[in-house]
Amino acid sequence: MIFLGIMLAAIGVSTLVWRDADLIGLPPVAVGTALLVLSAGSLALGITRRKRARVARGEPEPVGSVIDRAKALPRLLRARKAYGLPTTRLAQWGFALVYLVSPFDVLPEFLPLIGVTDDAGVAVWLLTSLSTAAGQYLSWERSKQRDRRP
């Protein structure tokens, strides 16, 4: 649903920007606006369904804003053994950083548009993985503080 919403938004915006003639007897402004409304509904439905599925699977909900998570990352790395962060996860993060910094790529940068996609994919994975881990660490840290209180 989210992908459908993104595609509908792209088609709606392109219709509003580039289309001059009528589409199936309707003005392009009406068609583009309708596509954007459908896009918003599809995105809202997709996000709601994804959240419900995550709750149904029993996944912990990460807490904190992006800034809170960034501040919690050093604490997470210091308390990784008490928290139970696997060493393999640290190794994955390290390999991702080395891959992003190294001049060697699976897809060379001189290939137009394609050369950047592998780096972008690794960067997106790294940032989402770090953000999720820091959010779950914040949740664990807060539950531990609640347990200490009388």
Low-confidence stretches: none
Query: What is the number of beta strands?
Result: 0
Structural class: mainly alpha
State mean pLDDT (0 to 100 scale).
86
Helix content: over 70%
- Gross geometry: flat
**Assembly state here?**
single chain
Number of helices: 6
SSE topology string: HHHHHH
Strand residue percentage: under 5%
Sheet with the most strands? none
Q: Using the CA coordinates, give the radius of gyration.
A: 22 Å
Question: Terminal Cα separation, in Å?
Answer: 46 Å
SSE blueprint:
Blueprint: H1 2-18, H2 28-56, H3 66-78, H4 80-83, H5 87-101, H6 117-148
Give structural notes:
Helix 1 (2-18) runs antiparallel to helix 2 (28-56) and helix 3 (66-78) packs across helix 6. This protein has 150 residues and is an all-alpha fold. Helix content is 73%, strand content 0%. It contains six helices and no strands. It has helices spanning 2-18, 28-56, 66-78, 80-83, 87-101, 117-148. The chain is flat. The longest helix has 32 residues, at 117-148.
Keywords:
150 residues; mainly alpha; flat
Q: What is the gist of this entry?
A:
The protein is mainly α. 73% of the residues lie in helices and 0% in strands. Helix 1 runs antiparallel to helix 2, helix 3 (66-78) packs across helix 6 (117-148) and helix 5 (87-101) packs antiparallel against helix 6 (117-148).
